[in-house]
């Protein structure tokens, strides 16, 4: 039996941000805490996102200290402001980090104890209740899809990068306005876009029974694959920005099926080296995981790799092994064209990082939902193959 839930109220298209006052009124938010980061605020994107708010920014309480990888310490700081200002809900304006941090605040401001108590791998999902503060999300990147996802990824006080999952964490509304992404630098466009592609690809490779999610993921992959280079090379390409925003949304709508080894490795390595961007890490691991997943019986029987290759517009191939090689090579080639690093070694990952990353990946909530269960040696092979993606 499969339980399907789609999803939250979504406004997508140019001008969607103008719906913010009405959406706050609809869900009962009268005094929001705005969660963002310093870069979004300095670039003027925050003011653009909140332009429809009566009275302007000076009448709002704003937390703009979101780190690149959100932490429990940052959650505590934001909760203190939330409580001091008497806020009754949150508006997240930013990328996945700001949205995930806002989810952490919505949880921590209404539930006692350390965040780890509510982590998925600690059995914490059952402890999350409907007391979670309401949240509205306005993404300024097209990558994580956190605006339509029930989960958040946060680094807790003991250094682990953990997932938190419950439908009560799902934003009450998602306002997807591609105009908020026009100023995104090319490097960040590429990295976040690869995050969106990884979500679509990895959730489609999952063999959990969820046909609607499969269709959404495959369509999102086709949109993202067709438009990511355009968005990266010309940040003012409004059609490409809209299509990437949709691909990001679709990846997150679909990944309730579960993700896999790409994310178990990325979460573990990102917790160990928080300076590394999650989307970039996904791009580094994706080719090796695609090849590994070609050995899964259900992936072969259901022709999942061949169907992904077709959605990507690759030449027709015969069989799952050839499809895996074609897809993996196409991903590596795309990362090079986008100007992303040539593997983990180029990011400063060393052999000393391998064993701790493997240990963390084996404990990650995405490990068990990969279509082929990985051993520590399988993860070691993936790490080795991800150190360098192409020959110069």
From TrEMBL:
Report the residue ranges that make up the Alcohol dehydrogenase iron-type/glycerol dehydrogenase GldA domain in this protein: 9-178
Q: Which cofactor does it need?
A: Fe cation
Query: Is Oxidoreductase set as a keyword in this record?
Result: yes
Q: InterPro entries, from UniProt?
A: ADH_Fe/GldA (IPR001670), ADH_Fe_C (IPR056798), ADH_Fe_CS (IPR018211), Alcohol_dehydrogenase_Fe (IPR039697)
A single Gene Ontology molecular function, please?
metal ion binding
| Record CDD domains | Fe-ADH-like
Cite the PROSITE patterns for this sequence: ADH_IRON_1
Q: Which residues form the Fe-containing alcohol dehydrogenase-like C-terminal domain?
A: 189-380
Q: Which key words tag this protein in UniProt?
A: NAD, Oxidoreductase
Query: Membrane-spanning regions, if any?
Result: none
Give the family this protein belongs to, as stated in its UniProt record. Answer: Belongs to the iron-containing alcohol dehydrogenase family.
Q: What is the protein's name according to its record?
A: Iron-containing alcohol dehydrogenase
């Amino acid at each position: 039996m499969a339980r399907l839930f789609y999803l939250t109220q979504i406004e997508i298209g140019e001008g969607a941000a103008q719906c913010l006052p009405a959406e706050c009124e609809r869900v009962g938010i009268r005094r929001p805490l705005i969660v963002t980061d310093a870069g979004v605020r300095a670039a003027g994107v925050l003011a653009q996102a909140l332009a429809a708010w009566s009275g302007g920014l000076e009448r709002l309480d704003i937390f703009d200290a979101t780190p690149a990888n959100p932490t429990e310490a940052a959650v505590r700081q934001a909760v203190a402001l939330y409580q001091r200002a008497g806020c009754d809900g949150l508006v997240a304006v930013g990328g996945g980090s700001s949205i995930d941090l806002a989810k952490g605040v919505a949880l921590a401001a209404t539930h006692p104890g350390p965040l780890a108590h509510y982590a998925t791998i600690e059995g914490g999902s059952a402890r999350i209740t409907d007391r979670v503060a309401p949240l509205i999300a306005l993404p300024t990147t097209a990558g994580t899809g956190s605006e339509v996802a029930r989960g958040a990824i946060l680094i807790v006080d003991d250094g682990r990068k953990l997932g938190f999952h419950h439908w009560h964490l799902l934003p009450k509304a998602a306002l997807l306005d591609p105009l908020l992404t026009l100023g995104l630098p090319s490097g960040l466009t590429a990295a976040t876009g690869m995050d969106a592609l990884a979500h679509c690809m990895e959730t489609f490779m999952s063999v959990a029974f969820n046909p609607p999610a499969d269709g959404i993921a495959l369509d999102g992959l086709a949109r993202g694959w067709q438009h990511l280079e355009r968005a990266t090379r010309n940040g003012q390409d409004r059609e490409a920005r809209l299509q990437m925003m949709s691909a990001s949304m679709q990846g997150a709508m679909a990944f309730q099926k579960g993700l896999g080894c790409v994310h178990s490795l990325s979460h573990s390595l990102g917790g160990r080296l928080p300076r590394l961007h999650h989307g970039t890490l996904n791009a580094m691991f994706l080719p090796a995981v695609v090849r590994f997943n070609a050995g899964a019986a259900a992936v072969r029987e259901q022709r999942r790799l061949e169907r992904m290759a077709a959605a990507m517009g690759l030449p027709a191939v015969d069989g799952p092994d050839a499809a895996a090689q074609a897809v993996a090579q196409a991903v590596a080639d795309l990362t090079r064209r986008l100007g992303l690093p040539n593997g983990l070694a180029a990011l400063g990952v060393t052999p000393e990082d391998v064993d701790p990353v493997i240990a963390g990946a084996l404990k990650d909530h995405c490990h068990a939902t990969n279509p082929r269960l990985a051993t520590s040696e399988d993860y070691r092979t993936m790490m080795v193959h991800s150190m360098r993606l192409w020959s110069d």
